Amino acid sequence: MTKDKFSLWVLAWPIFIELFLQFLLGAVDTLMVSTISDDAVAVVGFSNQLFNAMTTLFATVAGGAGIVIAQKIGSRQQEEARTVAVISLKATMIIGACLSVLFIAIPTPIARLLQMPEQLIPLATVYISTVGGGMILTAVMSTLSTMIRNTGNTKGPMYIAVGMNVIHILMNYGFIFGAVGFPKWGLAGVAASTVISRLLASLVLLFIFVGAFERKIVVQDIFLRDRKLFKEVMQIGWPLGVNMACWVFSQLAIFAFLAMLGTKELAARTYMNTLESFCFLLGYSIALGAQIQIAHLFGAGRTRDAYKAAYKALKVGLPLVILNATLLLIFGKYVLSLFTQDSEILAIGSSLLWMNLLLQPGKMLNMTLGDALNAVGDTRFTMTISLVSMWLVATGCSYWLGVSVGWGVIAIYGCMIADEYLRGALSFVRWRAQKHLRSRDSQLKREQSPILTVNNASVS
Question: Where do the TM regions start and end (predicted)?
Answer without folding.
Answer: 50-71, 83-106, 126-147, 159-182, 188-213, 233-261, 281-301, 313-331
